[in-house]
Structures are given as structure tokens and as C-alpha cells.
């Protein structure tokens, strides 16, 4: 463990020390303006309105299309691993259950959006990050900190929003990719996009299939397959009115270990239609109707379950532009429906609940002081009313440095499993929502060819939902999460550098223990180099130890993994890529399970191991 910590610290010092070289090299940068655009991207998730990263008054990270192409991750969970403030745990590789912790909060205390549409299982409250194909998206925005006043329930630790391509001006642009590699993995994807006469379109499909790797030492390979399709279409009229639709569907199966062979058949789906129009020169109104599904059919040696979560939402949002200021307000109605969900033949006592909300936000610009003030009221059929709000202040010290301070509240809604799980004594319909308050201080430096961002925060969580001695969920615990994040990036003369250091102290206030499965220290360092028609790159992700249990008795060692990549543009519109994940063949685990021994009647723990070294080669056609 000391070796990993020392290596991580050494890499952090090297990575962050290297970034100021960009300042010295700015005068030699061919186009510093273009670099500034990449390093200070536009973000919409933080404020429901476009703001550059330094104007957002939030801790934000953007994984753009270029980074997704270079790194070519198998899942969205892998793309998020090691990003500032983000901790990912998995129960194996290739489509195995993944949890994303943002700033020490649970995986069901964060929100996943796809083009503004929320996707998660209402039964568990968490998103199935492992089933989302990164090739369907052109960028990801990670906003850290509470966003309950904008997005409602569960936006305690942060929000991740994935954006699908809209289609660029010009004739049809095809893209095709075919590849294969370790663990008998195969992947093919294709897309067609373009825009003409005010109409934009993007159509894509992908297929990934692998025999998989063992999820436990000396175990059998556990396979995974996923077929995903995407259609996005929009049309803008002469009067700036716009209508559009989105449909994304992923379907497949994944094998896992549950005291014997087991398999999940899954469907992940979002669909939406929207209309947007200017009411006046200053007022724009938008209505979105959406449907999101998370379906799972599980067959295991000792049980069978079927979950069919469906969330229908009507969202109305209005934006008023008042000179340098902007006001956003609206209303939302959503309904969670479990349909025919059941486990081992037992149905849930309650299968539906609705939520009504109104929200408002003011984005006020009194340069050099800026303010973001927001408020939201939710009325939920199952657990009652919640009021959340936030206030953020930013002060521009000069043209490059901005101070920010914010305080925000949020809540996590009890899930259907916690409220109504059908097994006797395993649920509690009297649960109240968890509530939280977060104070954050930060400063960002934005330069022509590099940036840096430092933030410190403290989150207090009340009425934390935990299991009592009989494994029944109750509101008993309180948690305090303290942390700090330092991130930086640079673009200079063909080099792309990125570094992130994360410190998190997620403490159960009742016991003094660290919350389960959270690492307290993390590091990520990315380096890429363009060499004419060639490109080379590497990522190093390292984390210290974590505890699998709330009693902090089951310790999982820290780890450091290196991913390598290379690209070759061997002909116009043609390229080849090679990725070598876990290049040093590190044996590591971020979660632990148990199995029942019928001979001793004891529960035997085992580690969920991740895949070893994995090579993947692909050929691509298209821009």
C-alpha cells in the first residue's frame, strides 16, 4: 500500500509540476485561442444554461469527444474512473455491476442524465453505468456538488450528463468502426449524421460482445453483450422555434456470480420529444416529454427477479434574458412505475408514485461579482414535500482567476426497494428522505493554454438511510463528508496533459468509520502526444485502500493501473487504434462479495477482481 501511495504522490507531483511548462510555451503555441476553447469548455448542466467552466461557479469536468475517442473505454463507468471527485467500484469487468460515488456520496445519491433525461432504476435508485456504450455520446459533463434545487431528488453528490451528437452542417457523414481483442472481445459501430435546411440528424448503432473475464480468482469467464441504437432528429424553423426527438435503446445480457452461474438480461432506454420557441425576444420556452426505462430479468441459482422501472416526465422550462442577467423557471411532473416488477414471485406492495415540482433560478452578473440563486419545491406521493435551494457567489480577481463560494441543500429519496421490497422485514414504508447541506470554496485559474482548479467542501447528511441489526432500512445515521480536489490541464504543441488529485473523508458520524467502499485518496494523470499521423497516450489511475463494510473490518488494498493507447491515421478518413488497458496486469478489486457454504453454514468472502491486461485493436472510417 505504501508503494502505491508513494507512486501516486510521485506521479501527482510530476503531472502537476509539468503543467506550468505550458505557461512558458504559450508564446510558441500555434493557436492559443483554440486551446483556450478546449480548456474552458461550455457547460450547461451546472446552471441549466450555457456557461463556460470558469463562469459556472461550480466544480466541473468535461470529457470531450476527442478524449472519448482517444481512450476508447468499454463503458461510461470506465470513462469516469479517477476523474476529480469521482470514485468507481465494480463487481468485475465487462458489464458487471458498477457504482459511481461522487464526493463520497452513494451511487444512488447522484443523478445521471442523457440529453436532460434522467435514467436510473427506481428500485435501487442507482443508474446502470456499466450498460452505457460511450460511443453513443460526444461528451460527458460532471458537475460536483448538490444540484437538488435544479434536478430534484438524489442530486446530492453531483450530476453526470451525457450528450448525444446533434449532427453537423453538411451532407451525410458516415462513421464505421470495427475491432477486437482480448477475452474474445468484438465491437462494431456505425453512424450517419448531418444537417441541411434547418434539419439535424444523427443515427448510430453499436454491438459489443465478449467472453469476459473471471469476476473472482480462479473463477470462470463471465460474458457480456450489448447492442445499442440511437436516433436523434431536430428541425429549427425560421422564427427560431425548434422541435426534436431522441431515442436511445441498449439491450443485452451479462453473466455474473451468485453462489453459482447467474445471468442478467437488461434493457436501458430513453425516448423524448421536445418543442422550443421564443415567446418574446427575451423569453424562450421549452417543453419536453420523456420516457426512461431500466429493465432487468435476473436468473440465479436461488432466486429469480424481474424489474421493469419506467419513469415518465413532463418538463417545462423558461429562460428570460435580461441584459447580462438570466432567469430560469419552470415546472416538472414525473411518475415512477414498476410495472410487473417482482422478485422470486413476490410483487411490490406499491408500484407507482408521482412527483410534482416547481423551480426557479437567477443568474445575476454584476461584474466582477456574479451570483447564482436557485430554489425548488418537490411534492412526492411517497415521502412528502422537500424544499431545496442553493446560493453561489463568484468574484473575478482579474481576467484569469475567479474565486467562488457556494452553499446548497439536497435530498435523496427512499427507493422502492427501501420502501416496499416484498420480502418481510426488509423494507420500511415510514422512511423519510435523507437531507444534506454542502458548503464549498474554490478558485480557478484560466490561462490561454492551461488551467487549474482547486476546491474544498464539507457535506452534512441527516437521516442517512442505513440497515439496522435485522437488515431493515431505517433513518438513524448522520454522515459528514469533507474533501478537496485539485485538477489541471494543458494544451501545447501537440501535447495534451490532464491531472487530478482527490481527497475525500466520508465519515459515519455515529461510528467514526469511513463509509463503505469509498477510497479517501485518488489520482488520475492523462498524457497524449500528436506526432503527425501518429498519436500516443497513457493514463494512470491510482487510489488508496477502502473498506467493503461499514464496520471497516474488510479492507481492500489500493491499486494503480496504467492504460496505454496509440493511433495511426494511415489514409484520408481512415485510422487505426490500439489500446492496452491495465498494461501492467495489476490484480485489484474494489468490492467484495460473499457466498454461502452449505457444509459449514457460513458466509465466505471473496473479492470481485477486475480484468487483467487487455489489448484491443480497431479500424475506423470517417471524420
Automatic annotation (TrEMBL):
Membrane topology designation: Multi-pass membrane protein
Pfam families hit by this protein: Plug, TonB_dep_Rec_b-barrel
Keywords, sorted A to Z: Cell outer membrane, Ion transport, Membrane, Signal, TonB box, Transmembrane, Transmembrane beta strand, Transport
Domain TonB-dependent receptor plug, first and last residues per copy: 55-159
Gene3D superfamilies (UniProt xref): TonB-dependent receptor, beta-barrel domain (2.40.170.20), TonB-dependent receptor, plug domain (2.170.130.10)
Subcellular location: Cell outer membrane
Annotated ranges, domain TonB-dependent receptor-like beta-barrel: 197-582
Cellular component terms (Gene Ontology): cell outer membrane
GO BP terms in the entry: cobalamin transport; monoatomic ion transport
Record's signal peptide: 1-25
Family: Belongs to the TonB-dependent receptor family.
Name of this chain's protein: Vitamin B12 transporter
Amino acid at each position: 500500500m505504501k508503494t502505491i501511495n508513494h507512486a501516486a504522490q510521485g506521479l501527482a507531483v510530476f503531472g502537476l509540476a509539468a503543467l506550468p511548462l505550458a505557461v512558458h510555451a504559450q508564446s510558441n503555441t500555434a493557436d492559443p485561442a483554440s486551446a483556450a476553447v478546449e480548456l474552458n469548455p461550455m457547460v450547461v448542466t451546472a446552471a441549466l444554461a450555457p456557461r463556460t467552466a470558469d463562469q459556472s461557479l461550480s466544480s466541473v469536468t468535461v470529457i470531450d469527444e476527442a478524449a472519448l475517442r482517444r481512450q476508447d473505454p468499454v463503458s461510461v463507468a470506465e470513462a469516469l474512473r479517477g476523474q476529480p471527485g469521482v470514485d468507481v467500484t465494480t463487481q468485475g469487468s465487462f458489464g458487471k455491476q458498477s457504482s459511481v460515488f461522487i464526493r463520497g456520496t452513494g451511487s444512488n445519491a447522484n443523478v445521471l442524465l442523457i440529453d436532460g433525461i434522467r435514467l436510473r432504476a427506481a428500485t435501487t435508485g442507482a443508474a446502470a453505468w456499466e450498460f452505457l456504450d460511450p460511443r453513443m455520446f460526444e461528451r460527458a459533463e460532471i458537475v460536483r456538488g448538490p444540484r437538488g434545487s435544479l434536478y430534484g431528488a438524489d442530486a446530492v453528490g453531483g450530476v453526470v450528463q451525457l450528450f448525444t451528437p446533434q449532427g453537423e452542417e453538411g451532407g451525410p457523414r458516415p462513421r464505421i468502426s470495427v475491432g477486437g481483442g482480448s477475452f474474445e472481445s468484438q465491437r462494431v459501430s456505425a453512424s450517419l449524421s448531418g444537417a441541411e435546411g434547418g434539419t439535424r440528424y444523427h443515427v448510430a448503432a453499436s454491438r459489443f460482445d465478449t467472453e469476459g473475464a473471471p469476476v473472482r480468482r480462479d473463477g470462470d469467464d463471465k460474458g457480456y453483450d450489448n447492442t445499442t441504437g440511437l436516433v436523434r432528429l431536430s428541425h429549427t424553423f425560421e422564427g427560431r422555434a425548434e422541435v426534436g426527438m431522441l431515442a436511445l435503446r441498449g439491450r443485452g445480457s451479462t453473466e455474473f456470480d451468485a453462489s453459482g452461474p447467474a445471468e442478467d438480461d437488461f434493457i436501458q432506454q430513453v425516448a423524448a420529444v421536445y418543442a422550443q420557441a421564443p415567446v418574446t425576444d427575451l423569453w424562450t420556452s421549452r417543453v419536453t416529454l420523456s420516457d426512461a426505462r431500466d429493465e432487468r430479468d435476473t436468473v440465479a441459482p436461488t432466486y429469480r427477479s424481474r424489474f421493469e422501472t419506467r419513469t415518465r416526465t413532463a418538463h417545462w422550462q423558461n429562460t428570460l434574458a435580461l441584459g447580462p442577467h438570466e432567469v430560469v423557471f419552470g415546472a416538472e411532473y414525473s411518475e415512477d412505475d414498476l410495472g410487473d416488477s417482482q422478485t422470486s414471485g413476490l410483487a411490490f406492495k406499491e408500484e407507482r408514485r408521482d412527483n410534482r415540482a416547481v423551480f426557479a433560478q437567477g443568474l445575476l452578473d454584476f461584474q466582477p461579482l456574479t451570483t447564482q440563486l436557485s430554489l425548488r419545491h418537490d411534492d412526492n406521493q411517497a415521502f412528502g414535500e422537500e424544499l431545496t435551494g442553493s446560493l453561489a457567489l463568484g468574484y473575478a480577481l482579474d481576467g484569469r482567476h475567479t474565486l467562488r463560494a457556494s452553499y446548497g441543500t439536497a435530498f435523496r429519496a427512499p427507493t422502492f426497494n427501501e420502501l416496499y421490497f416484498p420480502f418481510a422485514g426488509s423494507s420500511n414504508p415510514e422512511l423519510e428522505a435523507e437531507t444534506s447541506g454542502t458548503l464549498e470554496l474554490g478558485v480557478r485559474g484560466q490561462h490561454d493554454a492551461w488551467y487549474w482548479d482547486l476546491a474544498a467542501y464539507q457535506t452534512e447528511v441527516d437521516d442517512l438511510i442505513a440497515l439496522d441489526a435485522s437488515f431493515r432500512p431505517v433513518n438513524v445515521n448522520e454522515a459528514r463528508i469533507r474533501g478537496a480536489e485539485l485538477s489541471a490541464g494543458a494544451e501545447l504543441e501537440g501535447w495534451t496533459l490532464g491531472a487530478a488529485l482527490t481527497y475525500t473523508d466520508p465519515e459515519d458520524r455515529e461510528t467514526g468509520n469511513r463509509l463503505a467502499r469509498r477510497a479517501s485518496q485518488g489520482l488520475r494523470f492523462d498524457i497524449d502526444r500528436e506526432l503527425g499521423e501518429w498519436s500516443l497516450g497513457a493514463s494512470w489511475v491510482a487510489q488508496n485502500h477502502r473498506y467493503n463494510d461499514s464496520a471497516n473490518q474488510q479492507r481492500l488494498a489500493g491499486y494503480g493501473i496504467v492504460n496505454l493507447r496509440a493511433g495511426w491515421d494511415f489514409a484520408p478518413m481512415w485510422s487505426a487504434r490500439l489500446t492496452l488497458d491495465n498494461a501492467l496486469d495489476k490484480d485489484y478489486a474494489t468490492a467484495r462479495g460473499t457466498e454461502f457454504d452449505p457444509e459449514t453454514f457460513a458466509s465466505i468472502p471473496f473479492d470481485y477482481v477486475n480484468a487483467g491486461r487487455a489489448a484491443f485493436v480497431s479500424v475506423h472510417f470517417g471524420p
